[in-house]
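USER: Write out one fold?

ASSISTANT:
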Amino acid sequence: MISGMANCHQCDFPVNSEHESYCRKCGESIRPQRGQGLLEIDIAHAGETWDIAKRKIDRAIDDALTYGHSGMKVIHGYGSTSGRSIIGPRAMSYLRHLADEEGGRFAKDLRNPGASLIWFNR
């Protein structure tokens, strides 16, 4: 992530968090706030390839850390339609790696077998 540059977590519009307090497109606050809950993203239900899904995860983790979220929920699917998940196993492996890298922890979502969580330890 370029210092100060991020995407609005509401509408995905590019913003400069060093010079702007609100998104110019939707008006959402872009200043980091502590105590925000989980940032939730879906990376597998719009026909994404693994490369696109990985980019979505990378952008979301940057946004989650920038905006002070306590963690991130990634909906990656579990293959209920096709019988096997293409993105799910790769996403879980990558999320474990990111959790270790960021000093957080990885967990499977106990309520949704097609989702995983990263909790940030801040």
